[in-house]
Amino acid sequence: MSGKILIIEDEKAIVDILRFNLVKQGFETMEAYDGEEGLGLALSESPDLILLDLMLPKMDGFDVCRALREKDPVTPVIILTAREEENDKVVGLELGADDYITKPFSMRELMARIKANMRRTVQQPPRGKIGENCLVVGDLILNADSCEVFHRDQPVQLTAKEYELLKHLMGHPDKTVSREELLEKVWNYEYFGDMRTVDVTVRRLREKVEDDPAQPRYIITKRGMGYMLKS
Q1: DSSP-derived 3-state class of residue 45
Q2: What is the CA radius of gyration of the chain?
Q3: Pairing relation of β-strands 49-53 and 27-32?
């Protein structure tokens, strides 16, 4: 597998270990040792994936993720954190991160998450051209050829995981899909996560495709079972 990965981490020993293992796996790397530099590289160099530490000088990882998502809703972000607090993980996901991993972590686990989150490169067709490979539910249109989503003919900017989550739900309309299935199909079978990741991503997705996220029309919670995309 190949691609360009941006490492935003202030501990040089961790950067060196990450760079060595990523290059060994065929990736190209860029490194930033503070949040301001990392945000600048993220916006100017268009990496395929970002590894983002939370505790950074000049600008912490939360602020980096928030600022990045204002201009780039697509590039996958994996948060690297030494914090065990549940709230930090949830806040990172709510700000638009696709995944998180808690230090210390194994390189095998990190590589599995990188491969599961790596953005696919697609050639965008002219805006408004809807191909044959589309999913349509109500006012939602998902064009699987261009990886575009429209709500009432207006484009919706989604992160990679938000897109994959919506695609899976739209592919199974009116069917209750368990959180376990979503972790397997959307986050990849090698994903070592928990159910909160699904819940937070669903909440983010509702904010983008629902008129009233508090009373969703499309993505319905089936308490104790999972989620359903209502047609």
Answers
A1: helix
A2: 18
A3: unpaired
Q: How many CB atoms lie within 10 A of CB 118?
A: 17
Q: In what order do the strands lie in the sheet with 77-81?
A: 27-32, 3-8, 49-53, 77-81, 99-102
CB 154 within 8 A of CB 168: no
Pick out the chain residues at pLDDT < 70.
1, 83-86, 119-132, 189-193
The predicted pLDDT at position 144 comes to: 85
**pTM of the predicted protein model:** 0.76
Amino acid at 224: G
d(CA 114, CA 13): 20
Cα 96 to the center of its chain, rounded Å:
7
pLDDT digit string, tens, across residues 167-192: 999 999 999 999 999 988 888 755 56
Between CA 181 and CA 4, with CA 54 as vertex, the angle to 5 degrees is: 70
Identity of the amino acid at 96: G
Closest by Cα among 21, 36, 189, 204 to 105: 21
Q: Can you tell me the distance from the alpha carbon of 198 to that of 90, in angstroms, rounded to the nearest whole number?
A: 11
Cα 117 to Cα 76: distance, rounded to the nearest angstrom: 6
First to last CA, the chain: 37
